[in-house]
Design a protein that fits this description.
Strand content of chain A: 15-25%
Oligomer: homodimer
CATH superfamily of the largest domain in chain A: GAF domain
Number of helices of chain A: 10
Largest sheet of chain A: 6 strands, antiparallel
Largest interface: A-B, 78 and 79 residues
Helix content of chain A: 40-55%
Shape of chain A: globular
Number of strands of chain A: 8
GO molecular function, one term (chains A, B): DNA-binding transcription factor activity
Distance between the termini of chain A: 40 Å
CATH class of the largest domain in chain A: Alpha Beta
Organism (chains A, B): Lentzea tibetensis
Order of helices and strands of chain A: HHHEEHHEEEHHHEEEHH
Structural class of chain A: alpha+beta
Number of domains of chain A: 2
CATH topology of the largest domain in chain A: Beta-Lactamase
InterPro entries (chains A, B): GAF-like_dom_sf, HTH_MetabolicPath_Reg, Tscrpt_reg_IclR_C, Tscrpt_reg_IclR_N, WH-like_DNA-bd_sf, WH_DNA-bd_sf
Protein name (chains A, B): IclR family transcriptional regulator
Pfam families (chains A, B): HTH_IclR (PF09339), IclR_C (PF01614)
DNA sequence: ACAGTTCTTCCACTCAGCGGAAGGCCGACG
DNA sequence: CGTCGGCCTTCCGCTGAGTGGAAGAACTGT
């Protein structure tokens, strides 16, 4: 850009993205000074960039002067394939799973070494749970995570096992050898289970959504309270949902928004008016 | 910025946001040239900015070379209050409504002169519908829209009626007088209905979620096929859900993420490991 | 009254960002 | 099998948009 002093090779774009990076689930609302500090920007620069972002509504300013992620950014994010394609196709199946179980239903993808939760459905009767839509959890302590890992290539598994495995409860599998054995069993059985490996008192059953080449695209899972768990009863509907989603995904090809047919007509109708 | 020629006062930030603006639901996947054209950027500039955005994963590049909205942007958008606060609190109530009706369940807020859909639940048995999470529809042709408008201040209503009212079906209310009367009836009855005003064959029932001052924060609604409609039977559970959400919102105060209690502990536990 | 925040505005310096040009790659058409 | 018209990518010299310091306003708690 320009500037008179201490300019490390950062571009304006990287600064803008750094501002977005300043927000996370533990810091969803920040003051201007917070943002400047967390993004390593001078207050002046933060002030100007945040001002522009706020005008576009990428950020919004609350009554207390603090900033949070804005409406437009939320809206833009929902145009991504994770939402318009994967979630759109999966949703009816997830609802079906919810109706059948009334428990927490999850849809997740693998991103790096974490399970990224694309959708989470839960009602009043479901067990309270740490996952959230847009959240991340370890692969080896969650049902969906283990389902994603088990069908991954050996290289990926090796790479994952090379890092230390977080032990979140006393039941978490933190030894590479035991995890490898568990993944083996999961693959042969067709679905993954966890028993209080993420949270004491909670268990889960999950299975992968595979593409035509057998690679795991995503995983569907259900989390229940330990006393209610019956994997044999839970697995069949989850397997069916995963199969259903996989088939619909394959059928949709690379259509970016499979559920959008006559909406095109609608937008035309709406446009004609204005 | 800088640059040697034709530089209208656009900032780098505005260009970056212009790139995001180039994507919409009808154009979720764009080539670099598409982006440059739609955002009025030179190909060179688009190339550089898109490159930076892709590196951060605000955008992602498909196998065919086209760009779409990336994972990180989706993730960032979900940190906004619409998702972490409103949706988080509303979700169990929406699920309850879905269980009770098995129809399309909507949660929407007003943004400008449109209803912005924050959440949409639908199963296999639900009527196919044009709404989508993150989508926008007119206020006067949708149940949630009318519910939002009916409790709005007179000024807002006047302002809305000043613009022409899109007539999307032959049953859409496009005369300001008739709409005003309808809103009056909605307010006195406590909930809104539509009868094929958005889509032929579909009807809806919706009611507002009001804050302590009686202002409409959001609206919950259900869309059903005309032959199945029984507003008197649908209204009570919807009213109850709206009331429940309103109470929980009021109880949460301005806690940015009311459903997040012991997750803080979890992230600490996860961090300790790495 | 004071020390500590916060946010905002002003300003002169300068390098990051700009777009044109040129070249490579692909598929379509004649 | 050239040629055209799309794409995308890299290179390069010019320059004004972006920079951070300084100064001060506003607000808070002590």
């Amino acid at each position: 850009m320009s500037g008179n002093t201490g300019d490390d090779g950062r571009s304006v774009t990287s600064r803008v993205l750094g501002i977005l990076d300043a927000f996370d689930i533990e810091h969803p609302r920040l003051t201007l000074s917070d943002i400047a500090r967390r993004a390593s920007l001078s207050l002046t620069t933060a002030h100007r960039l945040v001002g522009e972002l706020t005008e576009w509504r990428a950020l919004e300013r609350g009554e207390d002067g603090r900033y949070s992620i804005g409406l437009r950014l939320w809206e833009a994010g929902l145009l991504g394939p994770l939402h318009t394609r994967l979630r759109e196709i999966a949703m009816p199946f997830l609802q079906g799973l919810y109706e059948a179980t009334r428990e927490n239903v999850h849809l997740a993808v693998r991103d790096g070494n974490e399970a990224l939760y694309v959708e989470k459905l839960s009602g009043h009767r479901s067990v309270p749970i740490v996952s959230r839509t847009g959240g991340r959890l370890p692969l080896h302590t969650t049902g969906v995570g283990k389902a994603l890992l088990a069908w991954e290539t050996c290289d990926h598994v090796d790479q994952y096992l090379a890092h230390p495995l977080a032990r979140l409860t006393r039941y978490s599998i933190s030894e590479p050898g035991r995890l490898r054995k568990d993944l083996q069993r999961i693959r042969s059985r067709g679905y993954a289970t966890t028993q209080e490996e993420m949270t004491l008192g909670n268990c889960s059953v999950a299975c992968p959504i595979l593409d035509a080449e057998g690679r795991p695209i995503a995983a569907v899972g259900v989390v229940v309270h330990t006393v209610r768990v019956e994997p044999d009863r839970l697995a069949p509907p989850i397997l069916a949902a995963a199969k259903g989603i996989a088939d619909r995904l394959a059928a949709a090809g690379d259509d970016p928004y499979p559920g959008y047919v006559h909406d095109l007509d609608l937008t035309k109708r709406m446009r004609r008016r204005s």
